[in-house]
Amino acid sequence: MGSAKSNNRLLQGIGASPGITIGQVRITDRSRVVVIEERITAGEVPAEIARFKAALAKAKDELLQVKDDLAARRGPEHLYVLDTHLLILDDSMLTRETVAFIEQELVNAEAALKRTLARFKEFFAGIEDEYLRERSGDVEIVVERVLRHMVGQDQESLTDVTVEGKTIIAAHDLSPADILQIDKESVIGFVTDLGGKTSHSAILARALEIPAVVGLERITGELATGDTIIIDGTTGIVVINPDQETFRDYLKRKQHYEYLERELQKYRDLPAETTDGFRMQLKGNVEFPEEIPSLKGHGGEGVGLYRTEILFFNCPVPPDEETQYNAYATMVRAMAPHPVTIRTLDVGGDKFVADLNLADELNPALGVRAIRLSLRRPDIFTVQLRAILRASALGKVRMFFPMISGVAEIRTVKALLEEAKAELRREGTAFDEAIEIGIMIEIPSAVIIADLLAREVDFFSVGTNDLIQYSLAIDRTNEHLSDLYEPLHPAVLRSLKMVVDAAHAAGIDACICGEMAGEPEFLPILLGLGFDELSMNAISIPRVKKILRRCNKAEAEQLVARALTFSTAQEVLSFLQSEIAAHYADSFD
Ligand code: PEP
Ligand code: MG
């Protein structure tokens, strides 16, 4: 290091999968196929359409082949992403639009497909939700595969990456199939020009624990194979050809990071218990079964929030009962013997799903979203209830409902649930007769009547992301208001207290599954308020557990009593920080 080559260029991208890694780069050609638009005659239209359809079929065969190879080599894990891509290939809109462009605009098939892609991208770009917006990347990857078949350009497979020592892959973009083909023994990280935090490739990198930085825009243009780079997958920083000082600095950081990770791993199998013997349930928020090994690896004792809307996102129509059942069953089996808490569809607001005919709303966050949508579409809701009930025969399942605002609503839900149960009984289909049901507390009205709602269900789960949004009237997606989004606002603290007190008075559990649950500095407050369960991102669990094991519940209760006397979020925060400095400082490194 530090040779003539060291230019120490620093690039900032998006940290997609945490960890620091240092190694030599190998650039893989994932550049876009260059398409030249050509005019065709009306007589050439059928041949162009046939060429397009043949390329579609080839792309599909190729993907099925990759899937078979991977299934044989590594088992069924993670393969659902490839199913997503197969679904895109089968998407009738992709075919319809491309054929229409060929017929109406009289352009060659490649250009027609590119125009279809541009339409898709335009559509996705207007979506607020980050996860959904990034699905555009999936369509792009699939379209590239088809284009390559049309222009006859092959692509090297990442299975072939057998270089000496350890390699970092740099590519314009990597498809989920690429990531799945990576051999972790020889590839220690990757960087890409494209991609975002919730792209499927990023999700897979996290699931496989390969450090990665994406969204670097032009990194492939700045690198040459053989360059040394440093990737910091936590901060999103990449250093090209580091000088000696930077190299040493990052080596130290890498060692420190790995030391902390190892230290935290020690907490994995220790009970989540305070010094005075209070046992807290620490669970994970998940969207894909691929996340379960990491959740278990971080010591999660179950799934506290399974966001099922993910299943509805990539489909032109809502998934049928069998598809949903298979997804829930996979999750339940993977998490066994621990419980899985399945939330029914929570779309609308900033989460959009094709074909649910959501009207344009002036105030989507206050519109037909979550349970309101399910109750307006009992046809879709009942399919989901049946699928969840059936999965409950396979292991411990709890079910809960988003955005409940009052008792009438939960009673309607329960009536539909009873009908679904009766139908399954008539059919002789197995389900857990004692399945527990709960509601998300995320609307102020639900807080105010928490005592009434507590009589209707078996548990509460507070969605602080929305509860803060609705209590303080702060749009959670509006970056201009983020300074007003205050989890420690006295109104939020009082709300949380009302919810826990009402739950406990009725003898039911109070859980919390908003982002607040995974923030270590809030732990003394949530513990002192009396929450029974915290559900968070898997990687937050060891840190929260470490602090929990040094806390004393009785002391945390006193801390909360003091915290509730302050008038502003800032006052509560200052008090909390001084308490942390005085009592738990060493737990927070
Ligand atoms: C919440 O609102 O806190 C929550 C967990 O639900 P979501 O973030 O999916 O709205
Ligand atoms: Mg919510």
Automatic annotation (TrEMBL):
This protein's record includes keyword Isomerase: no
EC number annotated for this UniProt entry: 2.7.3.9
Pfam family, one: PEP-utilizers
Subcellular location: Cytoplasm
Domain annotation Phosphotransferase system enzyme I N-terminal: ranges: 12-135
Lineage top rank: taxon: Bacteria
SUPFAM superfamilies: Enzyme I of the PEP:sugar phosphotransferase system HPr-binding (sub)domain, Phosphoenolpyruvate/pyruvate domain, Phosphohistidine domain
GO MF annotation list: phosphoenolpyruvate-protein phosphotransferase activity
Keywords for this protein: Cytoplasm, Kinase, Magnesium, Metal-binding, Phosphotransferase system, Sugar transport, Transferase, Transport
PROSITE patterns per UniProt: PEP_ENZYMES_2, PEP_ENZYMES_PHOS_SITE
Principal location listed in the UniProt entry: cytoplasm
PEP-utilising enzyme C-terminal domain boundaries: 262-551
Cofactor(s) essential for the protein: Mg(2+)
Top class in the EC scheme: transferase
InterPro entries: PEP-util_enz_mobile_dom, PEP-utilizing_PTS_enzyme, PEP_util_AS, PEP_util_C, PEP_util_CS, Phosphohistidine_dom_sf, PTS_EI, PTS_EI-like
Limits of the PEP-utilising enzyme mobile domain: 165-236
Reaction equation(s) it catalyzes: L-histidyl-[protein] + phosphoenolpyruvate = N(pros)-phospho-L-histidyl-[protein] + pyruvate
Role according to the record: General (non sugar-specific) component of the phosphoenolpyruvate-dependent sugar phosphotransferase system (sugar PTS). This major carbohydrate active-transport system catalyzes the phosphorylation of incoming sugar substrates concomitantly with their translocation across the cell membrane. Enzyme I transfers the phosphoryl group from phosphoenolpyruvate (PEP) to the phosphoryl carrier protein (HPr).
UniProt similarity note: Belongs to the PEP-utilizing enzyme family.
NCBIfam families xrefs: PTS_I_fam
Protein name, UniProt field: Phosphoenolpyruvate-protein phosphotransferase
Gene name of this polypeptide: ptsP
